[in-house]
Amino acid sequence: MESLVEHLQRFSELLAVSRTTHVSTWDPATVRRALQWARYLRHVHRRFGRHVRIRRALERRLQNQWGQEGASGSAPVPGLTNFQALGRGDLLLSLRLLENRALGDPDYHYLLRQLFPGPGVPDPDEEALQGSLARLARCRSAVQLLRFSGPGEKSALEDPVLKTQAELLLGRLREVPKAEAEGPSRFLSTLWDRLPQNNFLKVLAAALLLPPSSPRPQGEELEPGTPQTPGDGAQELVRWLLEKSDVLAAFCRSLPVGLLTSVAGRHPALCRAYLGLLTDWGRRLHYDLPKGTWVGAEPQHVSWEELYGRFQSLCRAPPPLKDEVLTALEACKAQDGDLQVPGVSIWTDLLLALGSGS
Amino acid sequence: MAQDSVGFSSDYQFWMQKLSVWDQASTLETQQDTCLHLPRFQEFLRQMYEVLKEMDSNTIIERFPTIGQLLAKTCWNPFILAFDESQKILIWCLCCLINKEPQNSEESKLNSWTRGLLSNILSAFRFDTKEVGLFTQGLEFTPADYYPGLLKNMVLSLVSELREYHLNGFNTQRRIVPEKIRLLSRICIPLVTLPDIEPLVEALLTYHGHEPQEVLWPEFFDAVNEAFLLKKISLPESAVVCLWLRHLPSLEKATLHLFEKLISSGRNFLRRIECFLKDSLLPEAACHPAIFRVVDETFRYALLETNGAPEVIAAIQVFTGCFVEALEKKNKQLKFTFKTYFPYGSPSLVMVLLQHPKEIPQELWHQPLKHISEMLREIVEDQTHRSYGGPFECWFLFIHFGGWADIAAEQLVMSEAEPPEALLWLLAFSYSPRDRSLQRAQTMAEVKAVLIRLKKLLGSPSLSAEDLQAAAAESRDRDPRPPLCQQLIRRLLLNFLLWTPRAHVIAREVLTLMAPTDELTHEMTGFLDQTLYRWDHLRMEATGPRKLARELLAELRPAGSAV
């Protein structure tokens, strides 16, 4: 067991190095060793796939590593995240090395010989790796071909690019060590800090809108012992959003209105938070008598038009969302004195506008 | 060797030109042309690899100075990369270009350039936007995680676009344009054997628009059919039926493919034929009369060409059996009258033939038999009213349900009464449809005589092989029996052996006395196999006869031939 763990350690280090310029110091023998270790781990994966105890022990080790690397800040995700990854270690390593320009020519040459031995390979492992890489190339060209057929659906509900990113995100979220309750939150915060935020917000929305039983990413089988509730990932996202008010504000402000309505329809907690934000924004507006409209004190405040647009979208949604929104508006109007006169309470005016419009 | 290299050089020039014209295959013409040439180009790539792997990088550049261009153009043509194994062979070729130890800047540049190409095909992330790249890499995902997932989602999105139109008809806002569907069918041609694309192929096949002409590309049907026949794609039955209904050449190819399988596997036992048939999905598809007619015509043609070969007859019977089974399963969905399937037969005759003996108690089997015989006889002997074709059409229809003739033969042997004329006629007709009335009458008389002699033997205390053989033999003072008549008599003798418990001990002796040639042995094994198959399907007990039949079959069959 100890030697197994040691191998795991060494290989993880190798993986980390394989992306850096450090590989320029390697020689073909190093590449051979690396591939051999990868092969060994694949063998371990196959052999101990059903041994729950050994698997758990190895997973625990990997999760510890996650904690360490995450703390050191080097990468939000370690190279090997779970037991499943052991079966794909060689693929992972190969792709990193192939992409690394710092790898010397003799090493690269040796690597190619190993990965692509040619037709009629007697070794099933080598054939499997060659086949996987060829299939990847074929898959990429398939994506390119399908793009020929035109843009197709671009709404976040169905945009394949957003949907894929959302599935990947949920996949990683599932792997974050659950040992500490804060694990997933911290992970998401790290991502928020590091990744382009606009895109991240869109992916979050797409993830929140994925169908409840989200399909598992490529190559993963159902593992006994892992929590099966499919809504888990989405719940983590909701929890995190509710914790981080700045992210929530950006989320509600910058995403398309229709998209937000869909999200609110799916997640009651977010719906309440959204409504809360909307009421806050609404309260910041005051009535400008000469102009005859509601205006904000500062330019970055949400405008009347925007506010109205958002409420209109929410009211077009099917009940119970529509009803909840109207109830909230009525409550706000009641707080302001329940007057029917326009220009006194923004909520009255909104309801009036919605009443005639919708 | 020299000739090979000359041939290869001219091929090289040819493909270089083609690739230049195709460029990135972004127009209709280039896409069409590329798809037509995909298998041949893959062959060329294979040959090229064989040539390249023997040389080192410098020699390759010397020998083929434009190889870089050729390989690069191949890389940029997604249709080529998407096809079958072309991407794998291309990668092998590129690997040959890598120099282990580049000596000068030119060699280094070549290496760098080749590595760039390989990276493009395999390991690089290529995205529409930089943010997507940063996101995916930030989460430590590789192309091997991203692209398969993206492909699956793109396929799902396209499938739902196709289905939406299908469900909503005209009024849907997001109506998919015919041009897009045509384009999709073209794009799928190199991809049909990729499992991830299967849902899209299925959706395209089952898509029914409102355009008057076929909107899918014909080469698409060809590619799907080919992949299906070679078992490189698995499609649900509904999709395959759509394929065959929309593209007749595919159906014809599928039927011929089945025939080739039936012929080439040598001596086929009926169980195996049934497997082939069920595997091919043709019996299920034949529930559509249009498909049934095409397959039936092919059977008819084969029958005529082989002059009524028993193997073809057996195949027709098994096919019809599978077809009827499939029809029963679909009972609630399809409602075509039987006339649509058998236009050449009288509807009432078809109804009687379609009855399953299983549903009639064994003691009453003589009733439908008599009925069939009378109906057939009426049609065949009625020279004036050719409303249902001639004797051949009648016979062709009858042999679809040939189990009845076998039952007639058994009945004749098993019953103690005098052989009924109706059954005799039926048997004579089924074995020798072309006979004139006189010949047929003679055959019937011969058979009757043999049966009477055989039954008389049952009365005697001892039963010897010679006695049996004598009973079945031709009488010296008459004309020799025509071969088909002789065959019928042999059949009856074997039946007699199976159904007479006393005769079991001498069965082998009798067979030896018949002095079977290879052809005769073949005939007898065919008969025994057919009988066992029929008993299984009718769920007949018949323990004694079954045991004997199995033993005889095992002995007659040459060692090592397949069941």
UniProtKB/TrEMBL annotation, chain A:
The keyword DNA repair applies. The keyword DNA damage applies. It comes from the Eukaryota. It comes from Neovison vison. Keywords: DNA damage, DNA repair, Nucleus. This is Fanconi anemia group F protein. InterPro entries: FANCF, FANCF_C_sf. GO terms for biological process: interstrand cross-link repair.
UniProtKB/TrEMBL annotation, chain B:
Its main location: nucleus. The keyword DNA repair applies. One of its GO terms (cellular component) is cytosol. The keyword Nucleus applies. It is found in: Nucleus. Keywords: Cytoplasm, DNA damage, DNA repair, Nucleus. InterPro entries: FANCC. Pfam families: Fanconi_C (PF02106). GO terms for biological process: cellular response to oxidative stress; interstrand cross-link repair; nucleotide-excision repair. Belongs to the multisubunit FA complex composed of FANCA, FANCB, FANCC, FANCE, FANCF, FANCG, FANCL/PHF9 and FANCM. This complex may also include HSP70. This is Fanconi anemia group C protein homolog.
